[in-house]
Amino acid sequence: MVTGLRIVVAADVGATKTRVALFNSADVGLVGKAVFSTPQEGGEDAVANAIIKAFRSLVEGLPEHEVVAVGVGTIGPLDIREGRVVNSPNIKLGSFDLRKPLQEYFRAPTYVVNDCVAAVYAEYLSGAGLGKKNVVYLTLSSGIGAGVIVDGHLLLGKDGNAHEVGHIVVSYDSDIRCGCGGLGHWEGMASGNNLWKLIEKLRVRWGGTSELYEISAEGPVPAAKLFEYWKRGDEFASYVIKELARINAAGVASVINVYDPEVISFGGSIILNNPEFLKVIQEFVKDYVINRVPEFTITRFGDDVVVYGAAFIALKPPQELVEIQGRLR
Ligand SMILES: [Zn+2]
Prior knowledge:
The protein has 12 helices and 13 strands. With 329 residues, it is an alpha/beta fold. The relative contact order is 0.15.
């Protein structure tokens, strides 16, 4: 009889950072966590090997244990049948394998989903969506993405890339180009990595002067700086924030119009570091929405929402995912 700890291994593979967390399968309690830079080179198995290495150092000193399941939430785009990332524009590696090498190492059921898909599953089973059937998780971070549950079903899509909401067109006549190549995309204009393009555009329109306005003449303004100046009362920062909030409101309203959620749980560094910005977005949503406005909340899992979600995906995989990835091959 195995008397040791039954562990779920969960990972959040981001463009720059990867988190690996171990959970007690009995109560989804956090047992240990490691954060490291996502490998940018090293071939197909580089990321999986880094996850395994982190796991091995986390279990050192743990009592007798057994890995019962593995879950991964990753940046996309995803080939969900293979559980691999293909041609990701945000990571130098481009394409890499996750499910196969992890399953081979752990000899336990292994599931790989988009990071926001994992996150919404955590909200649904244990967060803001508990007891609800229509839930959206929305991240405003270096990128913009969502995970969606409609009528109790976790949406996946044919390749696992459903709800790429970051590429919703929020300005059809904009010449701001998104990382994907499209024009006027929500992520291209408003994500942490791209909002400097909006700032450059707004500089030309704005007639006044301010400290941020001066600084922005010297080169791209990082997102954190914009919010810092906004909180200090900088006039140009306030102007940019209002435009940025409108763009986000158009995107959020489109999500509400399309998925009709009961609650939207927000995460990602922009919102987690600047929760007051959500209130500004919220004020403008009514200008763009047709469906009844849902409850807005900020994820209670903070930076760990994807690893919690990956753990829930591993422990209670939805039927559709089991059919795609469930067999040990
Ligand atoms: Zn795009």
